[in-house]
């Protein structure tokens, strides 16, 4: 029999954050998202958002490393490496009330690696996959405690959506780099392959669709992260490996397991709801969430992913709030 390798946790989520809150808006709460507030929350620093005239400060004792990486093939203004100025310049470059502000990569790091190995791994991946293309990257590595008492290391990487431009008043190019979202030819190929498979349902058209999907930026970056992490694990002498593919593609015959981080946060949120409201309300809310997920799963798997992203953000906010023994400042606008 072949060697059986332990599987480390794979989690890499990419999303583009817009200024508009949309359905996330709450009565009496924030009226828009802020890149400055997001950077303050992830770095654990006190930053001033000049567009809103507000300071944002968050206590994040689990932040173990933070740094800003920038391209080396362009003239770099000094403010690029100042977190507060960088994200205020990003805000300044965007005029629309619903403008996209930044892309975020949220990455779970293998527990089998040390703090120094985590930093080196994230730095090399971000530099090669994002910064080399012209993006500025703001990295924050967190190491909170998980429900099992072990560390739960992960990284937040905020990425700019425009190229630096020293001749521009905003410091960034007039147009966003659309290829960083998706190359037009690849997007067209994916759309055509999906339509063909939806029309025919043939196995060969499914293979063609999967091949086209694999060329999308998000899937290229997901596959690349698995390669970087596995090389780091091998260099560290660990037998653990991660795999970005679906269980079906891996040949594993079982139902996908829920993301444990999400389950942990929901569990905490549920406990606090019981303490602060009534058991009946908490149980009802939990049942409603389960029903919504099931309905989405049956009708549209894509909707499940979108719902889970919203639910994760909500659960993280609740868990973060109740971890503190003293009142916290305004809920971060980026969550």
Could you walk me through the main structural features you see in this protein, from its secondary elements to its overall organization?
44% of the residues lie in helices and 13% in strands. With 335 residues, it is of the alpha+beta class. The protein has three domains: 1-179 and 217-253, BirA Bifunctional Protein, domain 2 (2-Layer Sandwich); 182-215; 258-335, no CATH class. 23% of the residues are buried. The termini are far apart. The chain is built from ten helices and seven strands. β2 and β3 (54-57) form a beta hairpin. α4 packs antiparallel against α5 and α9 (279-299) packs antiparallel against α10.
Topology:
Blueprint: E1 12-18, H1 35-43, E2 46-49, E3 54-57, E4 63-69, H2 83-93, E5 100-108, H3 115-129, E6 137-142, E7 154-159, H4 184-200, H5 203-213, H6 217-235, H7 247-250, H8 260-276, H9 279-299, H10 301-322
Antiparallel strand pairs: 1-5, 2-3, 4-6, 5-7, 6-7
Can you identify the CATH class of the largest domain? Alpha Beta
Class by SSE composition: alpha+beta
Q: What is the average of the pLDDT values?
A: 81
Tally of contiguous helical segments: 10
Measured as a percent range, the helix fraction is 40-55%
What's the story with the biggest beta sheet?
Answer: 5 strands, antiparallel
What Rg is obtained from the alpha carbons, in whole angstroms? 21 Å
Number of domains: 3
Strand fraction equals 5-15%
Number of strands: 7
CATH topology of the largest domain: BirA Bifunctional Protein, domain 2
Strand order of the largest sheet: 1-5-7-6-4
């Amino acid at each position: 029999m072949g060697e059986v390798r332990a599987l480390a946790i794979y989690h890499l989520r990419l999303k583009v954050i817009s200024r508009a809150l949309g359905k996330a808006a709450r009565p009496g709460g924030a009226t828009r998202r802020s890149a400055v507030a997001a950077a303050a929350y992830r770095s654990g620093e006190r930053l001033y958002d000049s567009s809103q005239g507000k300071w944002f400060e968050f206590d994040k004792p689990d932040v173990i490393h933070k740094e800003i990486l920038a391209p080396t093939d362009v003239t770099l203004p000094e403010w690029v490496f100042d977190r507060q100025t960088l994200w205020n310049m990003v805000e300044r470059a965007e005029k629309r009330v619903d403008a996209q502000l930044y892309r975020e990569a949220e990455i779970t790091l293998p527990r089998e690696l040390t703090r120094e190995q985590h930093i080196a791994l994230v730095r090399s991946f971000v530099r090669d996959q994002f910064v080399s293309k012209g993006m500025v990257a703001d990295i924050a590595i967190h190491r909170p405690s998980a429900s099992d008492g072990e560390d739960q290391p992960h990284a937040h990487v905020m990425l700019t959506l425009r190229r630096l431009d020293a001749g521009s008043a905003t410091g960034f190019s007039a147009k966003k780099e659309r290829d960083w979202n998706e190359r037009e030819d690849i997007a067209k190929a994916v759309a055509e392959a999906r339509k063909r498979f939806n029309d025919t349902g043939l196995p060969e058209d499914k293979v063609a669709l999967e091949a086209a999907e694999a060329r999308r930026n998000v899937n290229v970056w997901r596959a690349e992260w698995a390669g970087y992490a596995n090389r780091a694990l091998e260099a560290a002498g660990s037998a653990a490996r991660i795999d970005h593919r679906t269980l079906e593609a891996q040949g594993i015959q079982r139902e996908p397991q829920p993301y444990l981080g999400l389950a942990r946060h929901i569990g905490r949120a549920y406990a606090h709801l019981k303490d602060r409201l009534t058991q009946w309300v908490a149980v009802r809310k939990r049942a409603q969430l389960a029903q919504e997920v099931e309905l989405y799963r049956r009708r549209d798997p894509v909707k499940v992913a979108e719902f889970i992203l919203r639910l994760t953000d909500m659960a993280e906010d609740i868990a973060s709030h109740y971890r503190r023994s003293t009142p916290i400042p305004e809920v971060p606008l980026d969550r």
